[in-house]
Design a protein that fits this description.
119 residues, alpha+beta, 4-stranded antiparallel β-sheet, 28% helix, flat
């Protein structure tokens, strides 16, 4: 992939000394389906780790027929959790662009931390 070409469907939204942030657009072009990605590299004497955090707006079928709001409320009340899922649609080149951005961010952030901080 040519690094000089614009990266389709991916926009860098933040650039800090220890983190990079990207917004990945869903191929359906609906902004509610976009994915926000934070890439953080943390390294010291004891810990060398990379943290990928994905933020996505999720929906529950609360108002759909057949969904029992009371049963779901009790599940949350007694277990403290519920299940939700989200999907982002990407073409192959967009997925490859995301992987390339993750690799590039890790390399850049490792260089800033010094040569002995390999994650």
């Amino acid at each position: 992939m040519d690094k000089n070409l614009p990266q389709r469907m991916i926009m860098q939204t933040g650039d800090w000394p220890d983190a990079d942030c990207y917004r990945v657009a869903c191929d359906c072009h609906h902004h509610d389906h976009d994915l926000d990605v934070w890439i953080e590299v943390e390294s010291d004497q004891e810990v060398n780790e990379i943290t990928l955090t994905f933020y996505k707006e999720l929906y529950t079928p609360v108002w759909e027929s057949g969904f029992n709001r009371f049963r779901e409320a009790f599940r949350i009340l007694f277990t403290g959790s519920t299940r939700v899922a989200g999907t982002i649609i990407m073409k192959r080149d967009v997925a490859q662009n995301l992987l390339d951005n993750i690799q590039r961010s890790i390399s850049r952030l490792e260089k800033q931390d010094g040569p002995d901080s390999k994650c």
